């Protein structure tokens, strides 16, 4: 017996099992938020493998995994040391209670459970939990930790526990059970609440002292050694002791007695330089409001000025019109020109009056024939016809006279305004944190505004090549002026964007005055105001109005409608990212208008997510027409959230023989093959609202407008991974003729000419490269590689970080061209046997 017992004790299989169990227990204990990965909407296999009907249905009910992933806000998986998914959590912006409308949960949780401070900004809801049974007690904490680290404003993660008995040990002691206020039954529906305070490390926020030098200098050195090389090892202590009156403030986040994050702030800001280099009008020049500030640039003021100008020079304008008409009557055989009348009063006023070009109107056949009667020779007739055809092909939107005249009208928007108020900003000079303590930066930014209580903006300037993805959660990029040469990127953070309470509500009549004030300084605001008022006052309108509020002040608006032309979109655009099988036919919406104050752009994804929820649209489209980027013909303001939406690539349809297909009774619908006005299509889905978007400020300059250059830009900017999106903020194209196509589309011309490329005007309008690219019309005169500068037209320059030369033959070396032709002629003249015609060897 002892022998047998000893043999069993020394069994290598038993020892191996014990060692394996010990290793597994240690690996389970080592699971951290770094092991969390994002599950894409098309990655259903890990969920199907972990699906256990007996554990899932009692808690979450019957689920469709494909539909759940396609409509969820965030889906996360936990990997074990062998890279297998062992735990899954799926969260959304509303509770998984089918009897509760998506937009009513805030009043429901307030009235039933008494959670007054729960809102869409600080609350997410668990819709699914699945796990490997071996990891059932350990998988949840790393997932919840990761969610709180990624969402800096998230306060509550809530799981709805339906009445009944089911396994709750997987929840461990990570959260708190909240029962209904007036319910005493143990079987009542309860909420299991995960609170941020239980998962995020606690920090003590305070001003830095001299003794912190030993902690802060090594911390800053993990990011850059330059400060220590320039100022020595004790520069923090010297700032705090020797230069107390320099206007600097240093605040730190302390954890377990050590400074783990730091902000160095300075009240000194060069407002004049920043106002000259950046578009600061929407930030009031980073200054306090002042009566002398130029603020009245509304369209009403412009129209009033134009009316005064017209009445002032009415007699002179009528005289010019009469004189022009008489001249046309006397010279009936003159060459056909556009009827453009331009009156310049630049000496007395900055406005010009431009009458609409006659080429934009349609003429009757009789009128057209009468204008082409001529008794000249055949050659002259051919010349007139040639000129007429060329003028008809030219896009009227690119008329140089009209554009130059219109530019003088819009001069009010082109000048640099002056602001006379008191300083209202402080700058961020140093920010640093250890990787495990970056969440402490949020508390530091909140404390920064308490350090300067009389100022509302925190700004920072960073080099274009510096990655700042973690700071884009807090700051908004300020748009540079087209003529600016500032070497750094400017970012701004407003006090209300950090400390204010933001939310989205349905628009009502009480919001109309605030909306008028919001859009009063925006060009083409009349269209937006009319649509907003109509959507509120007209009960039969298809539009749904929404407003964005911060402390009950209107900071933005949106107008939605239902998408009714889905077949056309599916035929002409690549919608493969959308799983149409899981979306209802009425769940596709259109963003007609969306505007938001740039100060609050950091909350853009929150606003888009709320539009999905409140509008009950799982998919939202936005049509960007060519006229949206043309000042002279723009009817609505530009949407300033395009960078958070996904551009969809256009599809090329085959040329159908409709007569033949109709005979075979298999012709496609007219809704599919009809030619609509081209537009660029953008997409927003609920999962898209949680994707972290990376900002790249590297100055990319492309020289040349060849097919290669345009294809490169399209691939770089328009063809992105929906789950890892990138925004390129500094892309410039330099071309002598610019990017705009000079001819309007013509099916007859395109049918006769051979196409060597796909970049026709229609395709250009359907990808809208102008939305992403700054276009400079000019020729490169010199390239200074040492200083990374391009000289354009011998009188201007532009800096670059990355340069791409795609000029085809524009800068081809002539000597090299001669050698190439000589080499080709030698090959052609040499005797050879074509591979397509082999000879038989005997």
TrEMBL record:
Listed Pfam families: CFAP61_N
Domain of life from the UniProt record: Eukaryota
Domain annotation Cilia- and flagella-associated protein 61 N-terminal: ranges: 44-289
InterPro entries the record matches: CFAP61, CFAP61_N
Protein name: Cilia- and flagella-associated protein 61 N-terminal domain-containing protein
Organism: Acanthoscelides obtectus (Bean weevil)
Taxonomic lineage from the root: Eukaryota, Metazoa, Ecdysozoa, Arthropoda, Hexapoda
